[in-house]
Amino acid sequence: MIPPEPTSQHGLHPPPMNTNNEIHQDAQQIWNSLSQAKHNTIRRVCNESDLKFTVDEAKKVIASMKTKNSAGFDRVTNKMIKILPQSYVNLLADSYNTLFTEVYWGENWKQSRTVCFNKVDSHAPTTNQLRPISLLPIFGKIYERLFLLKFNV
């Protein structure tokens, strides 16, 4: 049995690291300092941050998602999000900004619904003939993509 990775006081696991990569080294230094920080300190920094998600960014992220009918455990699909009225997109952008300010990442956003597809044309496939797919909640995907818009500049 493999022992669990050490966690910080916030219960997070450190990301995998390639010691030959300069960006990974920088990320490790940031991880080390953040993993020792108190939650209130991180919250204060986020409150003072100028990182804010705009309604246009939320629209861009939603528009870039494929129109699918597959849903995570919450049964919300990409297609449902894409047909939301404008006022709800405004509400989503405001909500994501509040979540960032509060240093919140929903535990439920990490839960997935797993479905299995046959790799072969068989009515009763064996387990090695199935391909599992994990479906994550769309709201967590949107939040993550909003961050990527800001950090992949």
Indicate the topology.
Elements: H1 22-36, H2 39-48, H3 55-64, H4 78-82, H5 86-101, E1 113-118, E2 130-135, H6 138-151
Antiparallel strand pairs: 1-2
Helix pairs in contact: 3-5, 3-6
> What is the assembly state of the chains in this entry?
single chain
Q: What is the total tally of β strands?
A: 2
Unreliable residue stretches: 1-10
The percent range for strand residues is 5-15%
Record the strand order, biggest sheet.
Answer: 1-2
Radius of gyration: 19 Å
SSE order in H/E notation? HHHHHEEH
Structure report:
This protein has two domains: 21-50; 53-151, no CATH class. The protein has a two-stranded antiparallel sheet. The chain is built from six helices and two strands, in the order αααααββα. By secondary structure, it is mainly α. It is globular. The chain has helices spanning 22-36, 39-48, 55-64, 78-82, 86-101, 138-151; strands at residues 113-118, 130-135. The model is unreliable at 1-10 (pLDDT under 50).
